[in-house]
Amino acid sequence: MTGYISGDELAEIIRSGKTPKKDYLVVDVRDDDYAGGNIVGGVNMPSKKFLMNVDQLVKETRDVPLVIFHCALSQLRGPKAARIYKETRQNVLSETDSTSPTKVLILRDGFTGFQDKFKDDAFLVENWDKDVWASDWS
C-alpha cells in the first residue's frame, strides 16, 4: 500500500530547501488538464503515456528518496501511476541499484487541492491561470 502526503507536508518539503529531482520528485500525471498551473520543480508525465515512460523514470529516480505522484484530484490517475511506478521499480532495479530505499507517496486531494491553498505562493505553484480555475457557477 502506498501512503499519502498532505499539501501542507509537501509545501514544507519544497520550502525546506531540498532539491527537486535529487531529494524528492513530484510527478504530475495530468493529461490535457495540466494547463492552469503546476507544482514548482515537478515533472509532467501524462497518464496516457506513463506506461511507455515508467522504466526511464525508475532509472532516473533510482537514488531519489521520495517520489510523490498526483493528478487533478489524486483519486485515479495519481494512485495508479504510483502503483505502477512502485511495481516497475521492484522489477527493474536490483537491491544493489539504489543507494537507499525510495518512499512513494500520493498527494492527497491532488493539484486541485494544492492550488486551492497555495496558488498565490510562487515558490510552490507556477504557471497558475485564474481563468482555468474560475468556477462556472460564480
TrEMBL record:
InterPro entries: Rhodanese-like_dom, Rhodanese-like_dom_sf
SMART domains xref list: RHOD (SM00450)
Superkingdom, taxonomy of origin: Eukaryota
GO cellular component: cytoplasm; nucleus
Any one GO molecular-function label of the UniProt entry: protein tyrosine phosphatase activity
Residue span, Rhodanese domain: 20-123
Name of the protein described by the UniProt record: Rhodanese-like domain-containing protein
